[in-house]
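Notebook B, p. 112. Complex prediction, attempt 2.
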Amino acid sequence: MACLLVLGATLRAADPTTTLLFDKPAAGFHESLPLGNGRIGAMVFGGVNEERIVLNESSVWSGSRDNQADRPDAHKALPEIRRLLLEGRNAEAEELVNKNFTCQGAGSGHGSGADVPFGCYQTLGNLWLRFGDGQMPSESEDYRRTLNLRTASASISYQREGRSFSREHFVSAPDEVFVSRFTGPVSFAATLDRPERFETKAVNDHELLMTGTLDDGRGGKGVTYAGRLRIVARGGSVKAEGNKLVVAAADEVLLLFAAATDYRGFAGRQLSDSVAATARDLDRAARKSYAELRAAQKADHGKWFNRVELSLPATANSALPTDRRLAGFAGGAEDPALAALHFNFGRYLLISSSRPGGVPANLQGIWAEEIQTPWNGDWHLDINVQMNYWPAEVCNLSELHEPLHQLIASLVEPGRRTARAYYNARGWVAHVITNPWGFTSPGESASWGATVSGSAWLCQHLWEHYAYTLDREFLRWAYPILKESSFFYLDNLIEEPRKKWLVTGPSNSPENRFKLPDGKDAHVCLGPTVDMQLLRELFGNTARAAELLGVDKELQRELKEKRARLAPNQISPDGRLQEWLEPYPEPEPTHRHTSHLYGLHPFHEITLRGTPELAAACRKSLEVRGDDSNGWALAWRMNFWARLGDGDRAHKLLKTLLRPAGGGSGSLPNLFDSCPPFQIDGNFGGCAGIAEMLLQSHAGEIELLPALPKTWPTGKVAGLRARGGFTVDIEWNDGKVTNYRIAAKEAQAVKVRVNGEVKTVNSERLRNDGEREGDGNHDEMPEHPKDRLAGRHHEIHKARDKKLEDARDRRRITRQRLSLQTNHNQRLTTPAVA
Ligand code: FUC
């Protein structure tokens, strides 16, 4: 990289796009460094006298299955609620919803559900290492703490009294353990604890075991967990003293930590004995040397991380420690490489918090220091969990989408019961919040809990996985879930009297409120715009899936017919995209949720070129909503502006997302997003937003650099995925694409928009291992795409323009696949280039 690396006074160089860098230990959780293998998480503080490592395991959830959360007779209240809504008496309808149509019992405990059946995600505990008698060294003693995103390790090094000390920490997916290595003369006392419900004892002279049982929410026993620490020392001694292990004067120490629970729900390891599992994990891992453990972990992480490479230029600001780097950027210093770091951090976090077979990333991914996590660290279905998975497909981490797909599948059975109890309807429904216990009931307050479209929104993630991968087996698996979700909404649409449109109700425009003509505020409504967009998408995708699978002709017809009658997108008298069926005044015009623009992003029925008036209305809505909000809301706005082709505005939002959060929204020193509080959705949403600025594939073509900001005139990206099974590399200079490469499993025609010109080109072939099969010497392809972009053999080959006269079949397929969507409200959605 040309203008790379002006070094900080005391810190060695680090790749500024893949390294978080600090010159002091973490003063708190928000400065500590996240590690994870999808299941076990660790936050490394790096103290010199005392190291704290917050430990997590993705299934440490209190609570339990709650079969009482549905009100069995709720459906009896439905006709009256709907009658009042149809008469415009929303406030009265809302009263009835609050009385008869919320969940039964404590629900989420108003976001504090640790001790009610809903439960909450909790910290597993802390590992404390209290070192000898050393003092905190000054900066001149070369303290350095880094998180290397490429190799997924946290390293700490410093000098003291002329000696070098170092630590390296990582969490291994192949070996299911957290690993640390300490060099230098090492003396410390190790303990394991947690704020409540734990017992730690020394099992022998080199092992500690921490166990406990969480509350099931009914005063009984819930999930049981175990955490087991083993210390292996070279030289010196290790021995148990009470409930600690004491290491004295070792030359080197290897520390292994295993964690397990007996959660046996929709995901996870399905263990019955978590204590025994940790012993097995440690025994297995301990057979390997440190070097073997590290090599296996590096290879595993690299397999995911190295699929994508983004290079943006570094500046002097890029070499600063991360906290000062954020401050410098907010203060006006240029630092395109910081955007690349944020992008890479998002990919890193997904790799570290979501693995096939595991529990999906929650509001904090897997990283929590609390017993009562904010909002229970749950899965919110009205933007948050979906945003977590926005980067999955485009960032070539398609397999990591699976935990969310399994969560969705797990909601079908409880969601059927909820559908019957509240709506007397077929199919399944989920509302606003869920947990590992299959919670699908409405929330405990009508103001937010009545949103009926959580399940429709989840279903987008089934379709998008298909749209990107064209995996028919997956579609076959997902189809019954889509179909039953559609059943639910088909059974629940009602006709509003004025225009005879079909609408949902009762529902909300997520968490927002409006003013009724009599001046009262209300939340509960009929047919909020977001519901209508979601149903156009769901019905369209279900019908398309049925068509592709050659099933359910009659259902296809019904879905198309009802879809055409759904309330359309409307432009309000002041030119905005209207959020509700009526142009109600809003008490909070800058509200954080922008759900009515769902049709612009992540759905794509509103596009810049396909529906310019609606796109202009979205722009107006965004202007009124403003450019300041909560973390995740900033990230969503960034994605909207990218879809509107405004790179500079998207970058303005990115800049706000990256501002030092203080107590507000922005980025915490360790780059975690602050809503506030810490919420990981903003990290994932920002990562996806950067991808959206570089590549889009939702509008019947692949568009290269659709929203490139002026501040990134030069750069390269490799390995992004486009809908239709394509892998895309782009190189640009002076804001113009100079090279690109599009590859797919089968060479095929693809429509691409590049530097303002639309053309049809042939894609290259991808080999089975995902590498392109071009005319370079790919067998010698270096390990990661950065080299591929730079190397002589691996120069990006411009995708070959090709006339298609000689390819009749291809042309036919192309026409089918690439038909431009002109009237998005009228036609079924198809995967853009599938
Ligand atoms: C939604 C948002 C809040 C918060 C919560 C977890 O309710 O409106 O801002 O992100 O989810």
